[in-house]
Write a structure and sequence with these properties.
Vanadium-containing Chloroperoxidase, domain 2; 2 domains; mainly alpha
């Protein structure tokens, strides 16, 4: 009987240790995702303070930071597996020589700081904010970790992980994405008002994905054939956008503006918006640190690779935007969309694709039918919006582009399917347990 009792106590101890995930936690530093949520909060602040970065460029920032975050801690969490061997391309992770003396949250703190310094080095105030938060957490760790922990070695390990990911990121082709775009003529995309800007990064479709084969089988079929004639499927499709714009309800306007997400100093981009949602969920759940790192990893990779899939569709089909058709072929020469039309082709709809992929990724960690309220834009006076699931939020994000006047319904529905396909691929490929 005593032996049975002893083994029960031992099992409880082992399970408790697995839940903690890391040795040497100081008593005043809880094993929750506060480290991650604080860094997400700073990242969103930095996005608002950054100019000159294409909206889709932020997909890389979150994805590569997520890989560095996860890999900086996974060695200290036996119930999780490194994903280094599954990544696309050559990436060599450093090997820690300090073993149990590494405090992996300190390594994660240094790794995230290193990644954000690399991506946001243009403004001194951004660097100052990054340095400050890194130091705040380091001071917490200094104040209470066990004596056998080598914090300097922990920080150095995190820096080495970040350096490896940064070098790997430089080979993904994104630096060559701003290739020339030649207009294809009537029925195809052309620059849109008000800025009439050049096509946005046509070469992004050629970027290396984070995971090999993550976008296999995700290319949608061709869109509805172009026609200027009334009564044709194409004309009817565009007419819906115009008709909706003439009778928008206050709720539809609110939805369009809530998911606008333009990188204009006010919004935080579609990628930042979904990471804001993750931040809120982690805070609500008080999730363990490693679970937070896994969620960050999955969300970042899925949205990044979905962006590449979406850009392949956009610059394969080169479909014209509603504002072009409505002005040129329906005769409403002064018509404007509620929100600004981004400078890239119509099909498939990016917000629908990215948001569907994001919802799929978060479902894989927190489950289906997860109810939440999104407070992302409370700080600029917008009312929060509540959802019964991540999927429902993704569907609304896609429909927001119809209400905003910048996408046709079939482009949105196609994007939703495309994003979920990428999400399914990533779920199959990314083995973290």
């Amino acid at each position: 009987m005593k032996k049975i009792f002893y083994y029960l106590i031992l099992i409880v101890f082992v399970l408790s240790s697995c839940h903690k995930g890391y040795p040497g936690f100081p008593g005043h530093v809880k094993n929750d995702s506060r480290l991650i949520t604080d860094w997400i909060g700073l990242h969103l602040q930095v996005i608002r303070n950054t100019t000159g970065v294409s909206h889709i460029g932020y997909s890389r920032h979150f994805a590569y930071t997520g890989v560095a975050l996860y890999e900086s801690m996974v060695t200290g969490a036996p119930q999780y597996k490194s994903i280094a061997s599954r990544l696309n391309g050559n990436v060599t992770m450093p090997v820690s020589t300090k073993g149990n003396s590494i405090f992996y949250p300190a390594a994660a703190n240094a790794a995230i700081a290193g990644m954000l310094r690399f991506f946001y080095s243009a403004k001194p105030e951004n660097i100052a904010s990054i340095d400050s938060l890194e130091q705040v957490y380091f001071a917490k760790f200094v104040d209470g970790v066990n004596k056998n922990i080598d914090l300097d070695a922990s920080v150095e390990y995190g820096k080495q992980v970040a350096a490896s990911i940064i070098e790997w990121s430089k080979e993904d082709g994104s630096g060559n994405a701003n290739i020339p775009y030649t207009p294809l003529g009537e029925g195809y995309w052309e620059p849109t008002p008000a800025a009439f800007a050049a096509a946005n990064l046509p070469g992004w479709r050629n970027n290396r994905t984070i995971l090999p084969e993550s976008i296999a089988g995700t290319m949608p079929e061709a869109p509805i054939a172009f026609s200027k004639d009334q009564g044709t499927p194409f004309h009817t499709m565009v007419k819906e956008v115009y008709d909706v714009s003439q009778s928008l309800t206050e709720t539809q306007k609110s939805i369009a503006l809530f998911w606008d997400d333009a990188p204009n100093g006010k919004y935080v981009t579609a990628f930042g918006h979904w990471f804001s949602i993750l931040k809120q969920v982690l805070e609500k759940e008080k999730a363990p640190l490693m679970k937070g790192a896994e969620a960050y990893l999955r969300l970042g990779i899925t949205m990044n690779d979905a962006t590449i899939s979406c850009w392949k569709a956009k610059y394969t089909y080169n479909l014209l935007r509603p504002v072009t058709y409505i002005r040129k072929h329906m005769g409403y020469t002064d018509w404007n969309s509620l929100i600004s039309t981004p400078p890239h082709p119509e099909y498939s709809a990016a917000h629908a694709t990215l948001s569907a992929s994001a919802g799929y990724a978060l479902e894989s960690v927190f489950g289906k039918n997860y109810s939440f309220t999104d407070h992302t834009y409370d700080v600029i006076g917008m009312n929060p919006r509540s959802f019964t699931s991540f999927e429902a939020a993704g569907i609304e994000a896609g429909l927001s582009r119809l209400y905003g006047g910048i996408h046709y319904r079939p482009s949105i529905e196609t994007g939703n399917t495309q994003g979920k396909k990428v999400g399914s691929n990533v779920l199959s490929l990314l083995r973290t347990h």
